[in-house]
Amino acid sequence: MRTPIIAGNWKLFKKSGEAVELVSQLTHLVRDTKGVEIIIAPVFTVLSTVKPLIANSNIKLAAQNCFWEEEGAFTGEISPGMLMDAGCTHVIIGHSERRQYFGETDDKVNRKIKAAISSGLTVLFCIGETLAEREANCTFNVLRTQIEQGLSELAKSDLAKAVIAYEPVWAIGTGKTATDDQAQEAHAFIRGVVADLYDHTSAESIRILYGGSVKPENVKELMAQPDIDGALVGGASLKADSFAAIVNYLV
């Protein structure tokens, strides 16, 4: 039985005061939620502010990115150990916006994943195809390449600290959502690739999230699919009521 994950990626939103207000509301709204792992990923500058607010709650803390070195002359970067020191248990790596705007390659994503897992963080490893790639019928080739290269040199035991997030790039922030069938097809394929790389048990154990304009209105249908184990939520995670409604999709 794979425990569902609902993770909120705040992206470049919420200064300290706004973060405190959002988290204070959210902890109240999800305090009785059971059977779902709840994660929020604020900006770096408010991680330490948010941590004490969720210390006695059922919410876990993630960062949106990290570097692959623990320390050194790397101006502007944040190491896995620093994230753990700030209270993080999870980190998002390989988000399409990092790939698109900041030139992150599969090799860089792989180095970050290995460093984060080695430090004890659980990785939310993002993959997904662009609209052009989907229209060219390249979706499965793109996903396989991203998975193979992203998980390169990771042992089977490392998968316990890995979660895959499938985010079709054409559905992120566009209001478009993959149909239930499209999402399920991609998730089943991803699980199959993990089975090819490792084994059936590993594939059945790993959790695969869907991301891409997830809202309270569509989460229940997405979560009903057999290979979808949760959601990586963007815009709808910026309001406590909408994110709580997604978290409480079973209610």
Automatic annotation (TrEMBL):
<comment type="subunit">
    <text>Homodimer.</text>
</comment>
<comment type="function">
    <text>Involved in the gluconeogenesis. Catalyzes stereospecifically the conversion of dihydroxyacetone phosphate (DHAP) to D-glyceraldehyde-3-phosphate (G3P).</text>
</comment>
<keyword id="KW-0963">Cytoplasm</keyword>
<dbReference type="InterPro" id="IPR020861">
    <property type="entry name" value="Triosephosphate_isomerase_AS"/>
</dbReference>
<feature type="active site" description="Proton acceptor">
    <location>
        <position position="167"/>
    </location>
</feature>
<comment type="pathway">
    <text>Carbohydrate degradation; glycolysis; D-glyceraldehyde 3-phosphate from glycerone phosphate: step 1/1.</text>
</comment>
<comment type="pathway">
    <text>Carbohydrate biosynthesis; gluconeogenesis.</text>
</comment>
<feature type="active site" description="Electrophile">
    <location>
        <position position="95"/>
    </location>
</feature>
<dbReference type="InterPro" id="IPR022896">
    <property type="entry name" value="TrioseP_Isoase_bac/euk"/>
</dbReference>
<protein>
    <recommendedName>
        <fullName>Triosephosphate isomerase</fullName>
        <ecNumber>5.3.1.1</ecNumber>
    </recommendedName>
</protein>
<dbReference type="InterPro" id="IPR000652">
    <property type="entry name" value="Triosephosphate_isomerase"/>
</dbReference>
<dbReference type="InterPro" id="IPR035990">
    <property type="entry name" value="TIM_sf"/>
</dbReference>
<keyword id="KW-0324">Glycolysis</keyword>
<keyword id="KW-0413">Isomerase</keyword>
<feature type="binding site">
    <location>
        <begin position="9"/>
        <end position="11"/>
    </location>
    <ligand>
        <name>substrate</name>
    </ligand>
</feature>
<feature type="binding site">
    <location>
        <begin position="234"/>
        <end position="235"/>
    </location>
    <ligand>
        <name>substrate</name>
    </ligand>
</feature>
<comment type="similarity">
    <text>Belongs to the triosephosphate isomerase family.</text>
</comment>
<feature type="binding site">
    <location>
        <position position="213"/>
    </location>
    <ligand>
        <name>substrate</name>
    </ligand>
</feature>
<dbReference type="InterPro" id="IPR013785">
    <property type="entry name" value="Aldolase_TIM"/>
</dbReference>
<dbReference type="Pfam" id="PF00121">
    <property type="entry name" value="TIM"/>
</dbReference>
<dbReference type="GO" id="GO:0004807">
    <property type="term" value="F:triose-phosphate isomerase activity"/>
</dbReference>
<keyword id="KW-0312">Gluconeogenesis</keyword>
<feature type="binding site">
    <location>
        <position position="173"/>
    </location>
    <ligand>
        <name>substrate</name>
    </ligand>
</feature>
